[in-house]
Amino acid sequence: MTPPSTRSERARAAVREAAWDLLLDRGLRAVTIEAIAERSGVAKTTIYRHWPTKNAIVLDALRERFEPTVAFGDTGSVLGDLTQQLQAVIGLLATEAGVAYLSLVVESWYDPDLATGLVERYLDRRRTAAIEVVERGVERGELSAGTDAGVLVDALYGALYYRLLVSRQPLPDTYASLLVAQVLDHDRSGSRD
Amino acid sequence: MTPPSTRSERARAAVREAAWDLLLDRGLRAVTIEAIAERSGVAKTTIYRHWPTKNAIVLDALRERFEPTVAFGDTGSVLGDLTQQLQAVIGLLATEAGVAYLSLVVESWYDPDLATGLVERYLDRRRTAAIEVVERGVERGELSAGTDAGVLVDALYGALYYRLLVSRQPLPDTYASLLVAQVLDHDRSGSRD
DNA sequence: CTCTAACGCTACGCTACGTAGCGTTGTTCC
DNA sequence: GGAACAACGCTACGTAGCGTAGCGTTAGAG
Fold this sequence. Notes:
2 domains, Tetracycline Repressor, domain 2, DNA-binding, homodimer, 193 residues, Arc Repressor Mutant, subunit A
């Protein structure tokens, strides 16, 4: 990263970094404008000149540091492709950045702008990519013609978010393949755990 | 409801009611100990003598007023039973009490006690009941022997929570039957919308 | 080297938290 | 009926964080 040249950009970068560090160190609840100001060395008034809310800052920081997992390999089968993608998402959400992301998802319940930002940058992209995979499976004849890709994809990723955010159950290593097998495989011949 | 006899119980009931009214009127963010004190006429100090946190109060109020939807009819088929139950949950979550419940689910991310309370009173009961239905379907031969009821049930309800809490997509009237058909029906012959 | 946009600093009023101290009142029990 | 006490109400406090106003200071473009 080349250091920002203008004074403004230096301040903005310092703010994003302080917000991110605070988020990872002490959680979203500890991220306050005052704490960011203190940690970054940027005056509170200056922060307010650049961002309207704390969440906007954190979303900016996230954009720089948290890449959406969209890329799909092509393993040759729908089940394989989806398992691989789910596995990647599970891994990502288990990192400290992933947990930070999840806390923003939670926070977005009260912040429509944040919700829009997260949906556009992360959720929609991944959903669209997953839907394409399912539809490819339908074209190949691996899945029946009556398949509704959107509904199935929401069920797959919904299960992840549900267990992480709502019911707080862990996601075992086998979860991705188990989930795909149960939801998509007509014969439900996948292994159990 | 018989009016509470002791002075203490009167105060407690007034607090629960004020918290609930505030929640429905102005959302969880507006529910503060100070606001509850003002609205209920109960002194702030007295409130702190009975509850440790705002969330504990709201959870108490919820317990009195929001009944978990556990009852399943027996329609004769797994698909029918699950569709009916999902439909009931969707309806419940669409009420103002349901939205209040959802905001508590969100809040529980930061409050382990609240999370435990919600899981025990609502999520676990419904999950167990749904799992029983699926297992009944396996016994009847409607679903194959390799079915993992827990995984499937989390996928079904996960889809609901995912769309309501995370991606903020609406749940159309046909959603319950569509979801069940897609996730459980091997032939995916259910209707589309 | 000047000029101006952008920053830093201090201070303010507001809301909410959670606690301490003390006066007041409802209830119970004789 | 009256005493005793448990529980409530009230006031006040210190803390944190919000968002804004006013004004001094400085970086950096031209």
